Automatic annotation (TrEMBL):
Keywords: Amino-acid biosynthesis, Chloroplast, NAD, Oxidoreductase, Plastid, Serine biosynthesis, Transit peptide. Pathway: Amino-acid biosynthesis; L-serine biosynthesis; L-serine from 3-phospho-D-glycerate: step 1/3. GO terms for biological process: L-serine biosynthetic process. InterPro entries: ACT-like_dom_sf (IPR045865), ACT_dom (IPR002912), ASB_dom_sf (IPR029009), D-isomer_2_OHA_DH_cat_dom (IPR006139), D-isomer_DH_CS (IPR029753), D-isomer_DH_CS1 (IPR029752), D-isomer_DH_NAD-bd (IPR006140), NAD(P)-bd_dom_sf (IPR036291). Belongs to the D-isomer specific 2-hydroxyacid dehydrogenase family. It catalyses: (2R)-3-phosphoglycerate + NAD(+) = 3-phosphooxypyruvate + NADH + H(+). Its EC number is 1.1.1.95. This is D-3-phosphoglycerate dehydrogenase.
Length: 592
């Protein structure tokens, strides 16, 4: 628990849900840096107290202005990978487009200070998401503002390719007049296969239908209703290959889509197919495309994106006479760039404030109203985790944990991802040097071999309150406070929320009723008069304020468990004196 108090100087606030940028508050929030960055973080406070956002690629002015209202903004473009790694240790957020590789080294170099990476666009394939998650760094993107721009560019390439616009333009500029050479093909009545029927793909489909094309789409995850509504038929990958006169790529670059268009795929296409790629270079095996172009299997290609950007000057695809190339311009319209800049600036500022981002790539997206309702339970779950783990004294380590949520709401009406993350945070932080937040909770739990299972108890009654109580149980361990073990042999703590505040309602099989503030002394004694007074006066002599006390006994004269909430930590001496009271059989001091 010493780690907690060592954070009293950080600039982060005490709430676990949000961390508006203000100084001197104790505990660590959901998106906070690990302990080793304390010095730097404190320095940041000394030098202005605002977070620093590094904007590593050109971003629309509206976005920059918005960022400046909240943060120090460092616009440094064209940084080398080494320069980026050097700068990043002084930054709380980083904003990039597709031109910056945010590698594992970047996260490692940040040494935990980097809390948010904002991708001012859709594709996050240039960000090492696993590394971000492992470092507890949130990744957000701007998924909607450039959709139309990308779709329009797809259509521009489709029509320009079909009519040889780029080649003919170059020819005229070279003083030639080659009307026969640049005879094109018509689009009307031709079949276009849209690969990836998401936001951009759907808009391309809509526009292509307006051009009189027959549109089919391949997307294993697209809802059939959306396709039906636009008048597009969803087909298999193979069907798309054998049917299409034109193929347009709109899927993300993932391990599954990488080189999806390879020699095998090209061996199935209609001879003379034409290909548009506004998605990512990596979805096509560029060597295979080159072969297919040379063999006339692919008649033409229009490429906005390349595996390596910018492509080498001698890149044979770029130089190919049947290829039209643009320098990753899909999102580059004035309108889209202003929109993307605002979208990402809002997301980054929100994330720095501790809001859960609506466009999070590596964390659950929790709507604001759900968050508001769950916030006292978020505090409760972290505290239950902290209490439970401090009760462990031996066994095989904290490996098997069960969280039970008792609620009268249906399973679909209760999102427990936040609660699970907070239990993990509470369980792990007091016993390790790692920090846990919503981004990395599952990763850290898995890494440490912690299996947190969740169970629901469905109660009758009004579902107005999201939860009646939450129980956290740790199995296969011994406890330093034997009374914390319930009949099933697990350490058990249970809590509830009353008037918006978290309460401990059960320890082991003993019911208690103590507000989860400050710290707690749990004490099992033989039920007899005067014990409360004795403990109270030991604490009083020490000037330790008791904020709450509750006693639960099995039966008069038998054992009782007393839970005492204290504002400050009593001295060792005072705790020893409590232990020496003859009726006290066991006691434990727990920090929250
Ligand atoms: N050239 C440029 O400047 C731009 C490029 N893009 C690229 O376009 C991609 C798509 O953007 P959005 O439509 O906004 O994303 P989106 O997420 O709305 O759509 C992607 C679609 O691809 C589908 N998909 C995933 N795996 C697939 C697979 N194996 N086969 C077929 N479909 C698959 C998904 O189900 C989804 O419907 C982005 O990931 C980005 O790489 C986006 C904007 C601008
Ligand atoms: O949004 C995307 O995925 C894009 O590819 C746009 O990239 P850019 O921001 O123009 O570098």
């Amino acid at each position: 628990m010493s780690g907690l108090s060592s954070w009293n100087l950080t600039i982060f606030p005490d709430t676990t849900l949000s961390f508006p940028w203000r100084p001197s508050l104790p505990s660590r929030p959901l998106f906070s840096p690990p302990r080793k960055r304390k010095t730097l973080v404190v320095l940041a406070m000394v030098f202005g107290g605002k977070p620093t956002v590094l904007v590593a690629e050109k971003l629309g002015d509206a976005g920059i202005q918005l960022l400046k209202t909240f943060a120090n903004v460092d616009c440094s473009y064209n940084l080398s990978p080494e320069e980026l790694c050097t700068k990043i240790s002084l930054c709380d957020a980083l904003i990039v487009r597709s031109g910056t590789k945010v590698t594992r080294e970047v996260f490692e170099s940040s040494m935990g200070r980097l809390k948010v990476v904002g991708r001012a666009g859709v594709g996050t394939d240039n960000v090492d998401i696993s590394a971000a998650t492992e470092h507890g760094c949130l990744v957000v993107n701007a998924p909607t503002a450039n959709t139309i721009a990308a779709a329009e560019h797809g259509i521009a390439l489709l029509t320009a390719m079909a009519r040889n616009v780029a080649q003919a333009d170059a020819s005229v500029k070279a003083g030639k007049w080659e009307r026969n050479k640049y005879v094109g093909v018509s689009l009307v009545g031709k079949t276009l296969a849209v690969m990836g029927f998401g936001k951009v793909g759907s808009e391309v489909a809509r526009r292509a239908k307006g051009l009189g094309m027959h549109v089919i789409a391949h997307d294993p995850y697209a809802p059939a209703e959306r396709a039906r509504a636009i008048g597009v038929e969803l087909v298999t990958f193979k069907e798309a290959l054998v049917t299409a006169d034109f193929i347009s790529m709109h899927m993300p670059l993932t391990p599954a889509t990488s080189k999806m268009f390879n020699d095998e795929a090209f061996s199935r296409v209609k001879k003379g197919v034409r290909i548009v790629n506004v998605a990512r270079g990596g979805v096509i095996d560029e060597e295979a495309l080159l072969r297919a172009l040379d063999e006339g299997i692919v008649a033409q290609a229009a490429l906005d994106v390349f595996t390596e950007e910018p492509p080498l000057q001698e890149n044979k695809l770029v130089l190919h006479e049947y290829v039209t190339a643009t320098p990753h311009l899909g999102a580059s319209t004035t309108e889209a760039q202003e929109g993307v800049a605002l979208e990402i600036a809002e997301a980054v500022v929100g994330a720095l404030k501790g809001d859960l981002a609506a466009t999070a790539v590596n964390a659950p997206m929790v709507p604001a109203e759900v968050l508001l309702e769950l916030s006292p339970y978020v505090v409760l779950t972290e505290k239950l985790g902290r209490l439970a783990v401090q009760l462990v004294t031996g066994g095989n380590g904290v490996k098997f944990v069960k969280a039970t949520y008792a609620s009268s709401r249906g399973p679909d009406d209760l999102d427990t991802r936040l609660l699970r993350a907070m239990i993990t945070k509470g369980l792990i932080e007091p016993i390790s040097s790692v920090f846990v937040n919503l981004v990395n909770a599952d990763f850290i739990a898995k890494q440490r071999g912690l299996r947190l299972t969740e169970e629901r108890i469905v109660l009758d009654g009004s579902p107005e309150k999201p939860l009646e109580f939450i129980q956290v149980r740790i199995a296969n361990v011994e406890s330093k406070f034997a009374s914390a073990m319930c009949d099933s042999g697990e350490i058990t703590v249970e809590g509830t929320v009353k008037d918006g505040k978290p309460y401990l309602s059960k320890v082991g099989s003993f019911g208690v009723d103590v507000s989860l503030e400050g710290s707690i002394i749990l004490c099992r004694q033989v039920d007899q008069p005067g014990i409360i007074g004795k403990v109270g006066s030991i604490l009083g002599e020490e000037n330790v304020n008791v904020n709450f006390m509750s006693v639960c006994r099995i039966a008069p004269g038998k054992q009782a468990v007393m839970a005492i909430g204290v504002d400050d930590e009593p001295s060792r001496d005072a705790l020893k004196k409590i232990g020496e009271i003859s009726a006290v059989e066991e006691f434990v001091f727990l920090k929250l």
